[in-house]
Every structure is written in structure tokens, then in C-alpha cells.
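Journal club prep — side note

Before the paper discussion, L.F. wants everyone to see what a predicted structure for a comparable chain looks like in C-alpha cell form. Sequence:
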Amino acid sequence: MEKTGNIISIHQPNFIPWLGYFYKIYQSDIFVFLDDVQFSNQGMHNYHYIKTSQGPFRLKIPVRKNFKDNINKVWINDDVDWKEKHLKTFIANYKRSPYFEEVFNDLSLFYNDDFSNLALFNSEMIAFICKKLGIVTRFVNSSDLNIESVREQKIIDICIALKGSIYYSGTGAKAYQNEDNFKENSLELRYSSFKVFEYPQLWGDFQSNVTIIDYLMNCGYNWEKVLSNQK
């Protein structure tokens, strides 16, 4: 899909998300980190999976939060020694991968930096990975837009505020989004066309439900490979 008009996509700032998240960013002119919505234990805001010889393994960032806190009000709990554990887990499971050294060195920079806010840590890492992949998209935090509406109306209002003509949505939202509501606001509702594809992995049968780090370790910052598998 060629970029036409002002294409907006929106998603919570998740922890080193999967390839499809980055494809959504690539297809957009503006990507909005939806950081002023409630933190969810099921939302993958502070965890994701890597592939290991024993199957998927969850990496999780410990956090400090209050009930119903928005994502941008959640803080990383550095009283728990999570950084060293994560890095050791990357070494144990990816040291044989072709691009381990480069990707691990990049990860180490983030893990050794002093990020205290979860949304900031996640969004900065996502933006860094995009830069390495050659993805040129403008990033915006929804909290900077001061939009008070909720749910679908919030999405529409964000697109209007950013002068969008197309809202590029994840397919999971099809179940509850009303296309007519977007049309009434001169917005085209378009869904992601990302196709899961197999790439070389360590540890047996292919698994797709893993962080992009798995792809980077095995294939490097090779965005053309992703695009060639979407044709």
C-alpha cells in the first residue's frame, strides 16, 4: 500500500512489540502512542515473548502503579533486578543468532540508560528500532493532544486533531469499530494487511507470537525482507 493523504495509526506504547506493530508504523505518516489510556495487565504494555529452546518465554518489566493509572503514569520498578535478567536471557537464547552482537549492543544501551517511565522507555525503544530499520514516520504522544474523549471517539478525535484523512487500524479492532462513524468525520477506515511470514529462527518450529527482537537477532535490521514478504 502506498502512502496517500495523511495516514494516522494509533497504538499503546507496548514493550518491544511484534513485527506487525512496526509494519503498522511503516504504513503511517503519523503514529500516535496512545499513552493516556488505562494500563492493562493483558495489554502487553510491560511484557512480551522471546523464543527459546523450551518455547515462548515471557520477558516482563516490573512496574509501580496505582489502580486505573494511565500508561504514561506507570513507573518502572528498578528495585527488582530485571535489567540484568533480561540481558542474560537474551544472551542465553540468541548468542548463536547471526546478528546477536549488533542487536544486543543496541539493547544494552537502552537497558543501561536511566528510564523511569514505562511509556517513555517503550516509545523510545520503538522509535530507535524504526530508525535502524529505515522507517520514517512522525511520532506523537496522545497525552500531548489533551483529548478527553474515550474509546472510538478518542481515536476519531485524534485523527481530526492531526488532520488525518485515513485511519490505519489493527485488524483486532474490526469487531467493535463502526466505519460509518469514521465516514461522518471524513475519515477512511483502513485495516492492516500485514501477513505473518516465516523467517530463520533458532530452536525448531517457527513461532510468530514473539517480539521483533527475535526477527532482528536472526535477520538483522533488514526491513526489505519484511516488505518483500508482504507482496
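L.F.'s comment for the group: The chain is about 35% helix and 15% strand. Keep this in mind when we get to the figures.
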